[in-house]
Amino acid sequence: MRQARTVATGRRPDKYAVKPKLERWRVWFVLTCLMGLFAALLGRSLYLQAWNEGFLQDQGDARYRRTLKLEPNRGMITDRNGEPLAISTPVQSIWLSPRSMQVLPVGQSRPKDWKQTDDDEQVPVSVDEIKKIASLLAISPDELQAKINATRKNKQGEDVKSDFLWVKRHISPADAKRVLALNVPGVYSQTEYRRYYPAGEVMAHVVGFTNLDGKGQEGFELTKDSMLAGKAGSRTVIRDRRGYIVEDVSTIVPPQEGQTLQLSIDRRIQYLAYRELKNAVDNSQAAGGAIVVLDARTGEVLAMANAPSYNPNSRAKIDPAHKRNRALTDLYEPGSTMKAVTVAMALNAGKVTPTTVIQTGGGTMTIGPATIRDDHAVGAATVEHIIQKSSNVGAAKMALMMEREQMSDFMHAVGFGEKLNTGFPGESPGRVRPWKTWRPIEQATMAYGYGVSVSVMQMARAYQMFAGNGEVHPVTFTKLVAPAPGKQVVSAETAAQVRKMLEMVTLPGGTATRAQVVGYRVGGKTGTAKKLVNGVYSDTARVGSFVGLAPISNPRLIVAVMIDEPSFALRYGGLVAAPVFSNVVAGSLRLLGVPPDAPTTNILLPGNGVEDVKEDA
Length: 617
What we know:
Blueprint: H1 2-9, H2 24-51, H3 53-64, E1 65-70, E2 77-78, E3 84-96, E4 101-103, E5 123-125, H4 127-137, H5 141-149, E6 152-153, E7 159-160, E8 165-171, H6 173-180, E9 187-196, H7 204-207, H8 219-223, H9 225-229, E10 233-239, E11 245-248, E12 261-262, H10 267-283, E13 288-295, E14 301-307, H11 326-329, H12 339-348, E15 357-359, E16 364-367, E17 370-373, E18 380-382, H13 383-389, H14 392-399, H15 404-413, H16 440-446, H17 456-462, H18 464-467, E19 471-472, E20 487-488, H19 492-506, E21 523-533, E22 536-550, E23 557-564, H20 573-576, H21 578-591
Parallel strand pairs: 2-12, 4-5
Antiparallel strand pairs: 1-10, 2-3, 3-8, 3-9, 6-7, 10-11, 13-14, 13-23, 15-18, 16-17, 19-20, 21-22, 22-23
Helix pairs in contact: 4-5, 10-21, 12-14, 12-19, 13-19, 14-16
């Protein structure tokens, strides 16, 4: 009866019912997979947001964020009177983005109704537009097009174009305006600063110059680069794909302007010195020359010039050989200008007095196989007369009165063989050999300037000891408020005695009558030294020099002149260098307002009964 009911209702008996069943291991497998995926996603998110956040942030910033460098204005360089020697002027530089430009085929131009949209990855630029840009900037159209189309390999090894290309730098704002007026997409201008040197070649070796990026390359532009350059500022902005600035995203950090550098140089005296030096080098057909003018009281450099020179405003045309600062870097054997130092040494040591008579015989002196000769035999002569006539034998005999170590110590005390520490690049310390290696002949020849190498600046500094009370002050290119402490080298009495002898050299009977100055008493010493050529002293190549003081009654200036390889007829220091001293001193003393200390009739030049004494040592 139960069976019949079941059939009637159409249901199966319970024992035939299908019961769904899921194996337990499958459940755990699926659950484990889901949890593993969740853990991987969680770990990845932690890695990206915590450990690798900086990298991702940098990648994002690299695509839209830019930190612009705000260039500071480079500091000005002035002379001691505030006259500008180096200034920075704003200029424009043209640049473009090759990656965002597509050069169209020849003859095809950009549609007139074309407008740049945010979807444009590249903007079309016609060949004619490139030619117009090149013409305005005076560059080659083919070269410009080649740079735009040039590619390079990126880190993935793909060929890509550059994002940035300088087209032409440091042009006038008017020229940049004409280029931008072409409305060529992807061409921009940027404000920069160009260094300008008002004194040009006159001040080139003092001031130096900078490169296109405003970095000092020579002179005080290099030495004081950090002081002059200042500190760059910054501005962080967001840029779109086309390079346009959308907004600033941080506070602008303003640049710190460079400081002004005031030198001890007097621009007026510098001009005089360069003009007279250049004339002397040109007229004597010399290989070059150098001149230094020092303030005798403080050691400040009032002028330093070299010939040949160069124009720092035309960097592309500078001859590398003309950049040599001969006054500080080139060494030469000073010849007879060293005799004043030898006499001062002997006087200060008490070996001689100004009236001590020294026997020079017939003008020759033999030491071993070598013979020292005078150009003019003076016989038995006083120390004063020996300096006036420039006797090699007399100077050698005074040097041999000294102990070798004593003589070496004196030479180092006046600055020979020592750096001047002016801070100027390439400064040479000169050369004085260790005294223990000196032989008698070497000690004798150093008395008149052979066997020792100096710079023009070192000779000028050494003569400081004759200008005042026997002190030598440090040489400086910076304007001083008060003189730096000096070093006592000789006594004030010795300094006065040598000053008198130096004045005798410029009077009739001396070797430097052409150094005389109208209205002023002056003094100095000539030098005519043979040059070493391939290790042998040349019979024709000479270095003519003169170092002197003015006015002798109260020295204000020290002037050292060196002419390298003048023509043989003008090889004497009294002929080629002394006139330079005279002309520079005459103009400089008047510019400085130094009162005359002699009548205007004090000039007695060779001729009309005045002896013309020449020396070749």
